[in-house]
Amino acid sequence: MFLLQGLPVLMLFWTQEVWQFYLFAVIFGLGYGGEGSAFPIINRQYFGRGPMGRSFGWQQFGAGAGMAFGAWIGGALLGYSVLTARPSFCPLLPARPGRLSFCRWSPPAGC
């Protein structure tokens, strides 16, 4: 699925006609549809039948912000770091509160 999200972006470098943009959208959408459609299902399993728009919105915001700034922050850390292994561990630090909060939740019914 990730290849269908990443490789079609290379098409955009040489895209000049409208049908090429549509082809990109279809290929990228197939890859993202396999991943992105799971978020509402997981929300429903964890939070029940209540409203899930806010939690899904925050998930999408976090995913978009991570995609927007993640590569830039990684490059900046690599540029300022002496060791190349150090930046690979930096994403684990901001993810710690999320991991700890999932440890407190009980598993969904039926799992």
Tell me the layout of helices and strands.
Blueprint: H1 2-11, H2 18-36, H3 38-47, H4 53-80, H5 86-89, H6 92-104
Helix pairs in contact: 1-2
Structure description:
The protein has 2 domains: 1-53, no CATH class; 66-104, no CATH class. The two termini are 25 Å apart. It is mainly α and 111 residues long. The protein has helices at residues 2-11, 18-36, 38-47, 53-80, 86-89, 92-104. 76% of the residues lie in helices and 0% in strands.
Name the quaternary structure: single chain
Uncertain runs with pLDDT below 50, 5 residues or more? none
Alpha carbon gap, first and last residue: 25 Å
Order of helices and strands: HHHHHH
Q: Kindly state the mean pLDDT as a whole number? A: 75
Helix content: over 70%
Major pleated sheet: none
Net shape: flat
- Give the number of helices: 6
Number of domains: 2
Give the DSSP E fraction (strand runs of 2 or more residues): under 5%
CA gyration radius, whole angstroms: 18 Å
Q: Structural class of the helix and strand makeup?
A: mainly alpha
Structure summary, number of beta strands: 0
Observed structural traits:
mainly alpha; 111 residues; 76% helix
What's a concise summary of this model?
With 111 residues, this protein is an all-alpha fold. It has helices at residues 2-11, 18-36, 38-47, 53-80, 86-89, 92-104.
